[in-house]
Design goal:
The complex is a heterodimer of chains A (211) and B (336). By secondary structure, chain A is an alpha+beta fold. Chain A contains seven helices and five strands. Chain B has 14 helices and twelve strands. Classes of the chains: A alpha+beta (211), B alpha+beta (336).
């Protein structure tokens, strides 16, 4: 008769241990979510009937892939890329459109991902630093230029610089050093390594023309 | 999960597909709604929590608000057309060059790729006391922190100070005033059109708003008439850094010459007062005069009449004088 007294772990009859685990996990999720996202259930309710209202579950075209992702209304593209899609190559520096570390291409045009609402780019093609190299791992010519010339010191700003340069070179494939400097003038380097960066990006432009 | 930096406080988001839908949303949420264009001004306010809103109406999906059309020899530029699109538009470059030059000097490439022309003229002032959330006059309080004995006010106003000494930060606004542009404003009640120089408000008229836009209204387009196409233009912006920076002073002029005589002229200066100033006295004094060094010098002196410096911005007075002088004199190529 001992078997009869044994607790059976069925959905209707959870063990005490699992119940406590569940409570802790749920509590941690709720509290961290409110801390990290400063959100509330009330603010995220769906009002799908009103014209112009927005659905949270959307598809994003990122680096040639369709990614389904749950996006809050106030979420920026940099946050979605880094924290929802795991694309941490896009850096957050200032989060105020003042440093360029978060630069990505939206329909081939460089934008600060920290200052784009993810919901505004539902229909666009997004390319991040992770999407530059080919599937078999061959670096993009601009990335190769950076490797060839060892263009960066700490390289935190590097993904942003490379994305800016790739975007600019689409509009002007054969720039002078001065023109390229103007093209990537929306990016800052805290190491003050601008001269080497420009040399590397010029090398990248040359690689692109050769490719 | 990694630490998320600076998630904006929650808001309800609407993405209307047409102007009418947008106007209905502005009406339905009147009093607590934020209009989002490119967002380059908006996100700072929301991230810093100096302004809070419960509803945001994002204009990015309204196709009819974006694009440049030729109309009656001039142009009609949709309010959410990006500055990069303005800079590269062939007719803007060919006929209304100062607008392209002004738009190209705004902020950085990435910002120009996203910032809109409507947003550039409607953006809020950059006074850092106000933007840091101090309860100054402009924020509805009863003091100006930028005009106290210890205030840092190097970037502030030298003209038309009235309690508030913040300045208009727009680069395209003086160019649009010089081009005699018109701003088209719509609401569910209909449409009104205001002259560029009348779109902007000083603190003596309304200390908490920069423009004549009222709740429920939307700036939908900017019309540039054919009147000043291919005129003699002058644009100059003085700033501390070549990228990102707002103007210390900027100037735009459009001029028509018969021989060497100035037959007609429009000139506007930005970042010296809470609104971009059209210098009507300078226009009246130079019309009919020869375009010479003397006329230009007199125009410069006239422009700074009544200018009063704060503690750290006296340099703006000679700067404005010299920019107005150059804008009347033109550069060497323009005068020949």
């Amino acid at each position: 008769m001992e078997e009869v007294n044994k607790m059976e772990e069925t959905p209707n009859n959870p063990s005490r241990r699992n119940f406590i685990k569940g409570v802790i996990a749920a509590g941690a999720t709720v509290s961290s979510a409110s801390y990290l996202f400063r959100t509330s259930a009330a603010g995220q309710t769906q009002t799908a009937s009103a014209p112009g209202s927005v659905e949270r579950l959307i598809s994003l075209s990122v680096n040639g892939q369709e990614r389904r992702v749950d996006v809050m209304k106030q979420e920026t593209l940099a946050q979605t890329l880094r924290y929802k899609l795991g694309l941490t190559g896009t850096k957050l520096g200032c989060d105020r459109a003042e440093c360029g570390a978060c630069t990505v291409l939206i329909d081939d045009v460089p934008h600060y991902a920290c200052s784009v609402l993810t919901h505004t780019v539902r229909t666009k093609k997004i390319v991040t630093i992770e999407g530059l190299a080919s599937a078999e791992g061959t670096l993009h010519p601009v990335q190769q230029g950076v490797v060839d010339e060892q263009g960066f010191q700490c390289a935190f700003c590097m993904p942003g610089f490379v994305m800016s340069a790739v975007g600019y070179l689409k509009t002007n494939p054969n720039p002078t050093r001065e023109q390229l400097a103007h093209g990537v003038s929306g990016n800052l380097c805290r190491c003050q390594d601008y001269d080497k960066i420009l040399t590397a990006l010029m090398k990248g432009a040359e690689n692109m023309r050769g490719a | 999960m990694a630490v998320i930096r600076d998630m904006m406080p929650v808001f309800e988001l609407f993405q209307p597909a047409s102007i009418d839908e947008a106007l209905n949303l502005l009406d339905a949420h009147r009093g607590d709604v934020w209009v989002l264009g490119g967002g380059m001004d908006s996100f700072d306010w929301l991230k810093d929590r100096t302004k809070r809103v419960s509803t945001v109406v994002d204009l990015s999906q309204v196709g009819e608000l974006r694009g440049i059309k030729e109309a009656n020899g001039g142009l009609e530029i949709g309010a959410t057309t990006t500055l990069t699109e303005v800079v590269h538009h062939p007719v803007v470059r060919e006929k209304f060059r100062i607008l392209a030059e002004a738009a190209e000097m705004v902020a950085s490439p990435q910002i120009r790729n996203q910032a809109t022309l409507g947003g550039n003229v409607s953006q809020d002032t950059r006074c850092w006391y106000y933007r840091s959330g101090w309860s100054c006059y402009r924020a509805g309080g009863n003091i100006c922190y930028a005009d106290t004995p210890t205030a840092i006010n190097r970037e502030h106003a030298i003209l038309q100070q009235d309690r508030c000494v913040a300045v208009s930060p727009s680069d395209t606004a003086p160019a649009l005033i010089a081009l005699d542009a018109e701003f088209v404003i719509r609401s569910t009640g209909g449409e009104r059109v205001v002259k560029a120089e009348e779109y902007f408000l000083g603190p003596q008229i309304d200390i908490t708003h920069m423009t004549v836009l009222r709740p429920g209204e939307l700036l939908t387009a900017i019309r540039i008439p054919a009147t000043w196409a291919n005129a003699q233009f002058y644009w100059e912006k003085v700033r501390d850094r070549n990228v990102w920076d707002f103007p210390l002073v900027n100037v735009a002029s459009a001029m028509k010459l018969s021989g060497t005589t100035i037959s007609d002229v429009r000139i506007a200066v930005g970042a010296v007062a809470a609104r971009p100033l059209r210098l009507t006295a300078v226009e009246a004094a130079t019309k009919g005069k020869p375009r010479t060094e003397e006329t230009a010098s007199a125009a410069g002196e006239l422009a700074i009449q009544g200018a009063t410096p704060l503690r750290y911005n006296a340099y703006k007075i000679p700067l404005m004088r010299n920019l107005v002088k150059r804008a009347i004199r033109g550069n060497a190529q323009a005068t020949t």
